[in-house]
């Protein structure tokens, strides 16, 4: 069996026919991965009809910035009422920011939303509700079972590619064509 090392900062690209419709054609940025499990955020699934303005209104935050129509993404099926913001590493919350890579960080505290709304937050950000979580060994097992392809996490893929194109773009960043992708894996 192949040993899977720390995947923090890598993307998970859903394989065809993975068996879980919640993750169909999803791309997930892994924010943390260790022997204790993994946590990541889907980066290509916007929520229906929820924007930063809606979120600010629910949180009773006055909205002055130019971010009113910024979409909010479904970060995953776990704790969907909890917010997370993926952003470039040039911003750090005064409360808590988790470095994901040298250029990407994640903040899960309310102050990042307040800073975004006030125009003092990160310029480049992806807002998510919920997250994807795996227990010890669960993600590794899913990778071995061909549910996920592990890829790189280039900034343009995460922040600049339209959501509807991220899955194919994530594959292309690995030099894989979606048309040539098989839903079954083999063993050599």
Indicate the proportion of strand residues. 25-35%
Number of helices: 5
End-to-end gap = 11 Å
The gyration radius over C-alpha positions equals 17 Å
Order of secondary-structure elements: EEEEHEEEEHEHEHH
Q: What general outline do the C-alpha atoms trace?
A: globular
Low-confidence stretches: none
Mean pLDDT: 87
Work out the helicity level: 10-25%
Biggest β-sheet strands, sense, barrel: 10 strands, mixed
Broad structural category: alpha+beta
- Total beta strand runs: 10
Overview of the molecule:
This protein is an alpha+beta fold and 188 residues long. Helix content is 19%, strand content 31%. The protein is built from five helices and ten strands. Strands 1, 2, 3, 4, 5, 6, 7, 8, 9 and 10 form a ten-stranded mixed sheet that branches. The longest helix has 9 residues. It is globular and about 50 Å long.
């Amino acid at each position: 069996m192949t040993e899977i090392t720390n995947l923090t900062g890598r993307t998970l690209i859903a394989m065809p026919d993975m068996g879980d419709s919640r993750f169909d054609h999803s791309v997930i940025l892994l924010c943390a991965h260790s022997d204790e499990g993994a946590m990541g955020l889907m980066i290509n699934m916007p929520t229906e009809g929820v924007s930063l303005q809606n979120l600010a209104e629910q949180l009773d935050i006055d909205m002055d910035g130019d971010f009113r129509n910024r979409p909010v993404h479904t970060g995953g099926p776990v704790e969907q009422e909890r917010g997370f913001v993926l952003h470039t590493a040039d911003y750090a919350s005064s409360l808590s920011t988790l470095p994901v890579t040298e250029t990407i960080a994640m903040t899960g505290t309310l102050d990042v939303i307040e800073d975004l709304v006030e125009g003092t937050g990160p310029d480049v950000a992806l807002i998510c509700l919920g997250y994807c979580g795996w227990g010890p060994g669960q993600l590794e097992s899913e990778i071995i079972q061909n549910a996920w392809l592990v890829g790189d996490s280039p900034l343009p893929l995460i922040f600049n590619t339209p959501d509807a194109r991220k899955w194919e773009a994530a594959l292309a960043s690995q030099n894989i064509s979606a048309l040539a992708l098989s839903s079954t894996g083999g063993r050599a």
